[in-house]
Specification:
alpha+beta; two-stranded antiparallel sheet; 18 helices; transcription; transcription regulation; metal-binding; Zinc finger protein 431-like; Znf_C2H2_type
Length: 464
């Protein structure tokens, strides 16, 4: 009861009942009051010799040495050394955020957190590294940064022994052992081991790319990806292989490259036993078992197992052809298609038939050619039963039944069942004649027309 009276007196409550006041004014209180007037600090705690004007302050401070925690949360039973810390903790249950930023309106449960947040508006970075001069808005961030200089990694995994500079990185790492993915996307339900990965993943739904390159304007969903991209402008390749000297712009690329020397394939498929040097390659391989195609085209709905395949597919809609031949200027939507095209100029035919010796520019050409020896025609029309050696030929044949003509000329509106027919037709508008006779120089719009013309030089008369 006396403690209650004292607390009320401390906050300025005026007592009219002299008897109550006498109860409140105990000898200990009088002694404490005298100490505050004279500046004397009578109470001393011998463990660290720190002194206090009030005995209650001494008792509270003692808890820092004894580990005493007297204030208990009545919801989760967590205990705290001070009443103020208990009050802040209770906001985790109530969701109360009484401290609001007057610039952006964002609210916080603690005043100190608001103070730190305000630095995002002011740009203030009061904590500077005395080794490299880099500045930070928070002292804890500076402490973590200093470990990049010292190499200190105080947080160690008790399962595999791997050490980390940050406790949060250790917690995320532990999720790999347990398989726990506590952060779930509310759009698709996909789980993640850390919150930052979830945040980045959500950008795939929103399309948000907040990090933009100030040189070319290209935007990225992750800041780390922007930093890596900037090296394409600077040419910086800080990661070098100590075996062959080859340098890389990304540390992960160096680690992957090293496996070409060691032959290591640490990622194995639990279904078929096939091993891979990269985790991403294993992940894509697994889709051959599950049939999963998570990347869908928002224009035609076609789905793909790989994001790179979706990206290439989208160029069919946009008509984008970023890869250009330096010899003839012809452009392609895929880099590998350009590489294969270049063989037309070099004459390279790396794929040879082991039965007749015929060589091909493309591996697919050799595979299809082999069917001329075996007579294999694996693609059958389900309407008329006709079979074909190539799937593309079957698809074109089916249009005879359906009457489909998906390739339309944007100049005259004429439609065709095959893309090659549309390409040939377009030359009637452009006047382009890419097929030239090497003997007389006469040019033709179609390859078959050139072949027939060449027969006039050889005096061939195949039609009897």
């Amino acid at each position: 009861m006396l403690e209650t009276y004292k607390n009320l007196t401390d906050i300025g409550y005026s007592w009219e009942d002299n008897t109550t006041e006498e109860h409140c004014t105990s000898p200990k209180r009088h002694e404490r009051h005298e100490g505050s007037q004279t500046g004397e600090k009578p109470s001393a705690y011998t463990q660290c010799l720190k002194t206090f004007a009030h005995n209650s302050h001494l008792q509270r401070y003692k808890t820092t040495h004894s580990g005493g925690k007297h204030y208990e949360c009545n919801q989760c039973f967590k205990v705290f050394a001070t009443h103020s810390k208990l009050q802040m903790h209770r906001r985790t249950h109530t969701g109360e955020k009484p401290y609001e930023c007057n610039q952006c309106g964002k609210a916080f449960s603690q005043q100190n957190t608001l103070k730190i947040h305000k630095r995002t508006h002011t740009g203030e970075k009061p904590y500077e590294c005395n080794q490299c001069g880099k500045a930070f808005s928070q002292q804890t961030t500076l402490q973590i940064h200093k470990r990049t200089h010292t190499g200190e990694k105080p947080y160690k995994c008790n399962q595999c022994g791997k050490a980390f500079a940050q406790h949060s990185h250790l917690q995320m790492h532990k999720n790999r052992h347990t398989g726990v993915k506590p952060y779930e996307c509310n759009h698709c339900g996909k789980g993640f081991t850390d919150q930052s990965a979830l945040h980045v993943h959500k950008n795939t739904h929103t399309g948000e790319k907040p990090y933009e390159c100030n040189q070319c304007g290209k935007a990225f969903a992750r800041n780390s990806h922007l930093q890596i991209h900037k090296r394409t402008h600077t040419g910086d390749k800080p990661y070098e292989c100590n075996q062959c000297g080859k340098a890389f712009s990304q540390h992960s690329h160096l680690q992957t490259h090293k496996r070409t020397h060691t032959g290591e394939k640490p990622y194995e498929c639990i279904q078929c036993g096939k091993a891979f040097p990269h985790q991403s390659t294993l992940k894509m391989h697994k889709r051959t078992h599950t049939g999963e195609k998570p990347y869908g085209c928002n224009q035609c709905g076609k789905t793909f197992a790989r994001h790179s395949h979706l990206k290439m597919h989208k160029r069919r809609h946009t008509g984008e052809k970023p890869y250009e031949c330096s010899q003839c200027g012809k452009a392609f939507s895929h880099q590998n298609t350009l590489q294969m095209h270049k063989r037309i100029h070099t004459g390279e035919k790396p794929y040879e038939c082991n039965q007749c010796g015929k060589a091909f520019i493309y591996h697919s050409g050799l595979r299809v050619h082999k069917r001329s020896h075996t007579g294999e025609k694996p693609y059958e029309c389900n309407q008329c039963g006709k079979t074909f050696a190539r799937n593309s030929h079957l698809q074109m044949h089916k249009r005879i039944h359906t009457g489909e003509k998906p390739y339309e000329c944007h100049q005259c509106g004429k439609a065709f069942s095959q893309l090659s027919h549309l390409q040939t037709h377009k030359r009637t508008h452009t006047g382009e004649k890419p097929y030239e006779c090497i003997q007389c120089g006469k040019a033709f719009a179609q390859h078959i027309s050139l072949q027939m013309h060449e027969g006039t030089h050889k005096e061939q008369k195949p039609y009897e």
